[in-house]
Input
Amino acid sequence: MNIAPSAAKPSFSWQFVVTLLMYGFMYIPILILAFYSFNAERFSANWGGFSLRWYVSLLNDSRIQSALLDSLRVAFTAVAVSAVLGTMMAVGLAKYRFPGKGLYRGISYLPLIIPDIAIAVATLVFLVSIGLSLNIWTIIAAHIVFCLAYIAVVVSTRLTGLNPHLEEAALDLGATPLQAFMKVLLPELMPAIFSGCLLAFVLSMDDLLIASFTAGDGANTLPMEIFSRVKTGVKPDINALSVILILVSGFLAFLSEYIRFRSERRRFRQ
Amino acid sequence: MAISSSTVEPPAPAHPGWQRHLTKLLQPFLLLAPSGLWLVMLLVVPTVLILELSLIPGFRLGQPAGGYGLGNYLQIFQIVYLQVVLRSLYFATGATIACLLLGFPVAYWIAIKAPKRWRNLLLVGFILPLWTSSLLRAYAWITILRPSGLLNSLLGAIGLPGQDWLYRSPAVLIGMAYSFLPYMVLILYASLEKLDRRLLEAAADLGATPQQAFWKITVPQTLPGIAAGGLLVFIASLGDFVVPDLLGPPSMTLSRLIYDQFLRFRNWGFGSSLSLILIFAVSVAIALLIKYGDRNAAQS
Output
């Protein structure tokens, strides 16, 4: 070919085609799920007309509702506790040197690395060996472990980009350490803490294994309920539930990106 | 307090010296002890406990424990269980290769070819599905792959015979690739974005074909990112429970075997040893990641 390839048309390379296909690969299954949630037909893939019957059947499904309630209870409690503990841990690790710090940091990464199934069985063995009866509180205790680890990681990332002299200046000007922390450091960390909380919330709502092993008979979270239903095939009301949950998580994702975008813009302006 | 002169005195320290010293010692303790205690109690001690159980052959809840021994670990070498381990490794390896092959062009196009101001948005758009439940994303594939599902309807529409897609190995690979592709793209992107483009231009000026430039410059320069992405996908798919259980054949993977040993057969000793094998395999992958991988990319 003697015509020089024009630089203005990079968009029709084969990488572009693959990229387009992969976007399709990521989104088409979700769209199909949404599409079928409005299908009046129960068993076949054929279109049986538009219907909201699966959404209505969700409204009358008390098992799903109580599972959702349990999940929300677990997620909100675990995230609230972890927000405090995880932030304290990130600040402590950023500010102080002490013997065994490497070990401490290493342990704090473990919940991100060890497969859920291994964490789940270990937690079960521990809870049984100290004779605790399993209920919703044992799920919360187990969720705090990974929630605080994720929040600490997100907050740590923000801390490394922070001006360390701000807090010292506050201390030099006579603020107590607590005042310096609350009035100077905490406002700077707020976007990161919030992002970390969103991430931890989504992970807690998504967890199947750890909850299954620490729930006992009393509690039943939403992933546990969904799993037991879809194990035996397609359930149209689960399609409807998926659409609702996907919309909620899409909103949370948007919120998280928006916060990140805003805090980054503010940081550039400074 | 009246300030008499124009010179402003520095305010007296709020605390006497010894008290300030004490708070300095106490602060790290107060900040780090609660989380540390929680992690030790609910993560370190439990792991030590399953280490102990794994050394008691055939330990079952509620039965008198026998002596220590390596029986649980030897049991893994029975053909049935070795097959489970190999199957898990096969799925994890397959998913890793699939994610690399599918993810590299995407990360490459976003990082190098896409208009600069769209890059962040394109990347966020690609990893957005990670925010939705992994359970529901696996479930979505049941709708597509089941015998009366969308794929077979489409095949039927163009006159091809339908196939049994669901509950077979390819379905697991599709599901895992679907679950972990965004991680791969994220990590490869971080690595490709740092690629020095002048090297590519120089190669082109010196007469290298795009293929040569790709294999001699792009791939070697992004090798740490490729290693990081590959190992992370490998770890995630090795421990995955949902995808093989919902989409795969009835024959088990490691995570399902552990699940059953604890919740169905109550053989906690054997389950613990399997669990430790899994932790060990993941630790090896992490060690490799730290040694060869792009740690900055992996952290993102």
About this structure: The domain at 53-269 of chain A is CATH 1.10.3720.10 (MetI-like fold). Chain A has eleven helices and no strands. Residues 1-11 of chain A have pLDDT under 50 and may be disordered. Residues 62-95 of chain A form the longest helix (34 residues).
